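User: two proteins, same treatment. go.

Assistant:
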Amino acid sequence: MTTRDYDAAIAMVTSGAATALVGDVPVCVLAVLRHPNKDLGTLSNPFTVEPVGIALSPSDARFQNLVENYLGALERTGALEELPKRWLEQRDWISALP
C-alpha cells in the first residue's frame, strides 16, 4: 500500500489497518516516540544507510564558509555525535510538536 504521507502511514499502523511501515529511520523512531502506548518498534539495524548532503549555492561563499565552520565546530566539540541521541532516543522534545 502507499499513502499520501508518513502521517497517514503511521495512522494505518497504529489503527491496525497495516502491520508495518517502511520509511526513513527518523520517521520510524519518531512514530515510536510519539505513540509510546501503541506497541511500536523499529529494526535494530536499518535496511540501508544513505549519506546526507547539504546543498548550498555556489555563488554564496560566505554562507558556505558559515556552514562549514558550524559543522566543523559541531564535530570538534562532539555535539555532532550527540545529536542522534538527542533526537532519536530522548522523548522530552516530543511534547513541543503540533
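Protein 2:
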Amino acid sequence: MDYNEEIDNNLKKIESILQFTKGEKLIMATDSYSRLTTWNDKITNPKGKKLEEFVASNHLHVINEDNERTTFQSKRG
C-alpha cells in the first residue's frame, strides 16, 4: 500500500481482488503502513482501525506473530 494514499482506496482494490477470487483460497501479504495493537504494535492509528474493520467485515485472518525482532524500527515506531 502506498504510504501517501488514503487507505480507503487500497481497501477498494483489495475488495476487488476478494470478489474476483470469491470461493478460492487466497493468501495476501501487504505492508499497510498502518499501526494496530492486533498486530502487536503499541498503538492503533486511524489507518489501522479502518483496516481492522475491513478485515473483520470480510472474515479475513491476519497472521502476524509477536516477535522481539521487528522488520522495521525507527524513532517513529
